[in-house]
Design goal:
Elements: H1 2-16, H2 27-52, H3 60-73, H4 95-98, H5 100-116
Helix pairs in contact: 1-5, 2-3, 3-5
């Protein structure tokens, strides 16, 4: 029951994320925010990949926790892609801003896929 509540809450937040995308006044803050979120996702994915490749012992509880972490963290980076944050110290590709609707669709798909893995 509680897990369904969490999934519903996270899915709801995925729907309002674009509305929150202007919560940063400073583009550097937005860039640092999204980079931090992606680093956290990479850490969790890395641990999961190591288990799947046999480089670390498989621990189902840890794997599940990492998957849940990814699902929660996947909600975060999108709001850091504000107007003007294509400039500065960022590795974000120019095509993100050239086709923002495609990028938004891909971010939403990532969020939904990550959340579906929690079930």
């Amino acid at each position: 029951m509680f897990k369904k509540f969490i999934v519903s809450a996270l899915l709801s937040s995925a729907m309002i994320t674009p509305a929150l995308s202007h919560s940063f006044d400073d583009t550097d803050d937005a860039i640092h925010y999204r980079q931090a979120a992606f680093r956290l996702m990479a850490h969790n994915f890395g641990d999961m990949a190591a288990m799947l490749k046999g480089k670390k012992p498989m621990d189902k509880a840890t794997f599940a926790q990492r998957a849940n972490n990814v699902a929660a963290i996947a909600q975060l980076p999108h709001e850091g892609f504000i107007k003007g944050s294509d400039k500065g110290e960022t590795d974000a590709l120019a095509k993100i801003w050239q086709n923002k609707s495609d990028f938004n669709d891909k971010m939403k798909a990532l969020q939904v896929k990550a959340l579906s893995n929690m079930k």
